[in-house]
Amino acid sequence: GGAMAVSGLVAKITGIAGITGISLTQWLTDTVKALIALGAFVLLLAFCGYRLYLVSDHLLKEHYPKGYLPLSSTAKFTTSDGKTFVYELWRHIQVKRPALRKFEHRFEWSGTKVPLVRSDLQSVSPVADIPGETAKQVDLTFSQTRVYNEVEVVHILMDLDDSDGVSQPYLRQRVEAPIRLIAFDVELLHAPKQYNGEHAKLCRKSIEKGQSAVEQSLATVPFNAMTKSFAFQLHNPEPGFDYIFSWEKPPLASAARRRGDKKAWAA
What we know:
Blueprint: H1 2-20, H2 24-27, H3 30-63, E1 68-79, E2 84-95, E3 99-107, E4 116-118, E5 123-124, E6 128-129, E7 136-147, E8 151-161, E9 170-175, E10 181-188, E11 199-206, E12 216-222, E13 229-235, E14 241-246, H4 253-259
Parallel strand pairs: 1-10
Antiparallel strand pairs: 1-2, 2-8, 3-7, 4-8, 5-7, 6-7, 9-14, 10-13, 11-12, 11-14
């Protein structure tokens, strides 16, 4: 009933318009027609652009799951007393998504106290646990959204408290994609003179094999007694491995004195 009434009304209006010679196009000026055509064209372009964005974003996610290509990574570890440490990480990345707003940084700290994380370049979220893993994560938000192929410098600074002496002396960098350089710099400013002659070592373990991976030795690095540091750069490391830089902890002079050790190393 209702639908038939509406159809009848439309038919009557159409008939009257035909009799009087009036059509819809005659109601419109040339300017209005042009604006309608322009609006339709803009909508078509917007739709095509949106579809292109979806396709390109899908392809980029397949090739770059994290949304970026790593270029270099430099880790620095400094302590002046063997109890409190400063860990600093610089990463150069190239954006491989239409837009990238933040960088997700996962890390593992073998100490018992939660690190204090900050950055000179990005705003940092609170440290969060990753469900089902021992690793933790912070999000570093850029000052402005980065777009495809732009290069961003990511900076992370951690204050680490190991006053209970639980932490293990190593740095690890995971390489999942081709990268030009990873570098390690360890400053043990409290090391005594007798620590000269010690060596750090660089090893790697397969990511895919997990806990069953066999550790492969890559290099040994002598201690620099002048700067009280270990330093090593690895160019074009093979992806698919965790690269682990480890060393022996220098003894704490105060602890040695408390034990009354006659062979205590003098700082």
